[in-house]
Amino acid sequence: MKENITSNAFEHGVDNEEMKRERMKYYSEVYWSRMSKIISEKTFNVWKALDKGLTNYHDLLFERKKLADEVKGMYEKNKELKKLLTQYMESDDNKALHIPPYQTLKRVDLNFALSDI
Fold first, then answer.
1. How far is it, in rounded angstroms, from Cα 97 to Cα 8?
2. CA distance 53 to 110
3. In the list 39, 61, 75, 91, which could disulfide-bond 43, CB 3.0-4.6 Å?
4. Among candidate residues 83, 81, 92, 86, the one with its CA nearest the CA of residue 105
5. pLDDT at residue 14, rounded to an integer
């Protein structure tokens, strides 16, 4: 029936809405049929593989960016913790203790250094 409507529309020049729709549908089918034959199957497969590879690469780069942001946050937090530790170690309250914590840390570091020898 589609062929009859399409061929009737072309043969008789009738332009009602149904015929216009059928004509546009026919032209669309012809257009996309021709478009599907522009590139070979081999070329299509190459592009498909390239798309898959680039998608995987994009995902990898996105994951690396997240990890880099996480490392940057850890670096900043480490910097803050070092600053706090320095403040605590240099505090007058620590110096008032019988054995200040900074001396304990120095001894522990020395013991670790000697155990490596």
1. 105
2. 52
3. 39
4. 86
5. 56
Distances (CA, A) of 73 to 66, 67, 86, 92: 11, 10, 20, 31
**88 is written with which tokens?**
């605590």
Q: What is the dihedral of CA 108, 110, 111, 116, to 10 degrees?
A: 130
Task: List the chain residues with pLDDT less than 50.
Answer: 1-3, 5, 9
Count of positions (residues) in the chain: 117
Task: Please give the structure tokens belonging to residue 60.
Answer: 């990898």
Residues 6+ apart with CB under 8 A from 9: 15, 19, 20, 22, 23
Q: From start to end of the chain, where are the E strands? A: none
Residue 33 structure tokens: 């049929």
